[in-house]
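BUG: 3D viewer hangs when loading the predicted structure for this chain

Environment: internal workstation, default settings.
Expected: structure renders.
Actual: progress bar stalls at 90%.

Input used:
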Amino acid sequence: MTLGSSLALHMSYTHLLNRRDGPIEYLTLNRPDVRNAFNEEVIAELTAWAAATREAAAQRDVRVVVLSGAGKTFCAGADVTWMSKTVQFTEDENLRDAIAMSQMFGAIDALPVPLVGRVQGAALGGGAGLAAVCDIVVAEESAMFGFTEVKLGILPAVISPFALAKIGRSAARELFLTGARFPAARAREIGLVHAVVPAAELDAAVERYVCELLAAGPEAIAAAKALIPQVWGRSVPEAMPITAAAIAGRRVSKEGQEGLRAFLEKRTPSWIKDTEENKGHRG
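Structure tokens produced before the viewer hung:
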């Protein structure tokens, strides 16, 4: 399996390209002329895409999403033309605008499938927020990141819950307050990025993660993703009933039983067979 193989367009958007290759959804921000910056239309399309992807995941049609940006930049944050409109907005209009963006990030963050971010060039402002809602982020060595909002006299409010969950309070106090740009190596140190590779190796590194994800039970991945926010911030005694119920439920589930029996019988579990035989991908 290669990132460029057998890709077919399966839905049409104005500012997004989405292609399905078996159980893998490839979503590309497609505004390279403005460095894939956000505006109200991009936000609406990403929200609609997240809803459609949730439905596809429920049908097991999508098991992994790869998110990227067209051209030389992943996402440069807010579009200048859009920002010029918000300058004229009332506080109520800005509130509606911000709520729509917050709902978009929340919908992407809550997808029951793993989201792999492929970052080149820069991920600034809302672009860094997109990286924060990716489960796994692979960045090229020269990529730059930044929560740059304070440089404009505003703040990274909408993306803050997602960024804080990724980078923690200490890094946020430095990077939210300075608005400084930082390299991919620093992004990896603070947990915003998981792998940093030369540009020529970016697709191969993404593919390795995709293959690892396809080798795992899709329901187990969804349950593991949902478990993280439930347990995070709780003490062990508080988390114990949640974690005990989670593992007990998975052990008796159809997928859990299949995975455990496949391991004991030294055979390939059905979700890998299905991927190999019906989707043409190697798990």
